[in-house]
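sanity check both lines:
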Amino acid sequence: MRASKQTETSYPPGEMSFARRTISFLAIILTTFVLAAAASAQQGASPVPFFWDTRETLPKPDLTSLARLRFLTTTDFRPFNFLDSQGRLTGFHVDLARAICNELGIIDKCEIQALPWAELEPALMKGDGDAIMAGIAVTARTRENLGFTRSYLRFPARFVAPLSSALEEPLAAAIQDKRVGVVSETAHQSLLREQFGASNVEAFDEQDAMLDALADGRLDAAFGDGLRLANWLGGKQGADCCKFVGGPYIAPDYLGQGLAIATRPDDTTLRAALDWALQQVAVKGTFAELYLRYFPIGFF
């Protein structure tokens, strides 16, 4: 299951004490502020996410014995990996893989191959590839068969509201008397109710129906996946009516761990090398360049 689609699945609602709800919500808000501060420190006023502690020194890997590094991906996960108008494999993941190889000093040993989604893990296990960069969700189930690097991108929850809206943080208080839309049976619905305490919630079967209602003035705000909402804001309907308010909200317990590179479980040396390279790509600003190139409407 791709990380970008995690929020389509239902998150089982559970009983949560007031204390646990308060601690969890504060953790979400704290993560938001830490993330924003880190992005600001690295990129000035840029809304580019930054997930690395610059004070942490990861060991530089020795890959002199590596014959080649083969990344596996797909062609149907735009804008992460897809075929351009010339039929060439391109996308955020493709350029990030090249940046990683450049940092590792093995650009001449790097290969990137596209396969159907169902063939990625079998190919990795057979040794037909060394790493998967295609949006495999990091879950307890996938960890049974795969090893993962640290997350290099997460998908925050966001609110969107009309351009005239005066909603601002703390939104947990501001939305209490507002009509808020969310897609039913999703992690975002659980997050909205359990952590924001929203009571005037209207659930929709599809995101398009929810956003139509927002654009038509039948909602005061809508809540969902930041990436998908950013894509909508980049289109005519969204750009003409709405904007992000508050957030972003990072909530791993609800929304997952984000994107990471998958390897064979025992390939610890390669994972350490990839983590080092990912940190270098972030610290040197290459990640920011790629993020701004492929996500002109940022979701952070």
